[in-house]
Amino acid sequence: MTNKSRYFLIGASLLLLAGVGVGMVAYYRANQVAGIPPGLPDELRYVPATAELVAYADIHTVMNSELRRELERAAAIHSKGKGDIHDVAGIDLEKQVNHIVAYLDAQPASGAAQSGEPNREVPRGLLIVQGTFEQPKVEEFIREHGGTLEDYHGKQLSIHRPSEDEKQRHGPNGEVAVGFLQPNLIALGNADLVRHAIDLSTAATATANVTSSADLMTLVRAAAGETAWVVGRFDAVSRRMGLPSAVRQQVPPLRLVSAKAHINGGVRAVISAETADQAAADQFRDVVRGFVAIVRMQAGAKPELQNALKSLELGGTGSTVQLSFAMTPETFRALVPQREHGDSR
To answer: What digits encode the pLDDT tens for the residues 181-195?
Structure first.
């Protein structure tokens, strides 16, 4: 090797190391500004601190999993049905979406009481989709379905405004919007929340996003790396689900709930609950044991269900209660028999 070649190689190596170093510093600083811990979805920067429920799903992994193929075989989905399911707002869920982050806001939509169900709140939610998209195609789809374009701080929003009938059922502020936060990132949901996500994208600190909520972030960190997870405050979850008061009275005081699942050939899942104290946790374990015992009694004549119940494990320490289970593809096929193509049930 000549001296000239040696100097060139050394110089190129130094430039490469400098470039990698600058890139790592830039990445670190960007994530520090956003307050997103390593290993967690960057889209959490768009989730406000007021979120009651936060969820994540690795759509790419799910769509390419054996479980998804089992679900389609069980439902006997034809090619036309696949197109209906996968193509949403001009987006192919199977080919274009990598993962999603979603949340429900603490504040219900205005006019919720007009829905005729005064005890039920109309939730405000946002879906943040990461993938590879064709913005003109998505916006054209929205326009074709009655949407209008609006500029908000330099971002184009496609907005669907509610009809008079929708206003009567869901209140006057039921606008739904689709906005590109970045070329590879779409926000879909309540129009005010889409605008708020744009505001959060320019925030200089993380105090306004969900990373400032220590209790929720503890659960999010515990779920990092799983295929799908959801965390939230129990009061919000029970209210959104509309649990009857008689059911809620049987459940000891719970603060937080979470569920996480690893999906590939089958499913391995863990459901956790954080109670007010250890006494409440012990009481809740007794409730869960009773429920599991009832299910096992009813499954006595179903060997395939017995196999699934064998994986149930109740655990947790202190004020935390955990219930885990696993389901193999074979168990799933036994529990959900494949439909014939002509069976519409």
So the answer is: 998 999 999 999 999
Q: What is the pLDDT of residues 288-319, one digit of tens each?
A: 888 888 888 877 667 767 777 888 899 998 99
What SS3 class is residue 210? Answer: helix
What is the pTM (predicted TM-score) of this model?
A: 0.76
- Determine the residue type at 2: T
- Quick one: which of 242, 255, 267, 261 has its CA closest to 55? 261
Q: Return contacts of 220-226, CB within 8 angstroms, 24+ apart.
A: 220/40, 220/44, 220/54, 221/37, 221/39, 221/40, 222/258, 222/260, 222/272, 223/56, 223/258, 223/260, 224/39, 224/40, 225/39, 226/260, 226/261, 226/262
Higher pLDDT, 138 or 206: 138
CB atoms within 10 A of CB 82: 12
pLDDT digits (tens, 9 = 90+) for 83-92: 444 455 667 7
156 CB contacts (<8 Å, ≥6 apart)? 135, 139, 149, 150, 179, 180
Q: Give me the amino acid identity at 220.
A: V
Tokens 């768009």, located at residue: 46
Specify the 3-state DSSP secondary structure of 97. Answer: strand
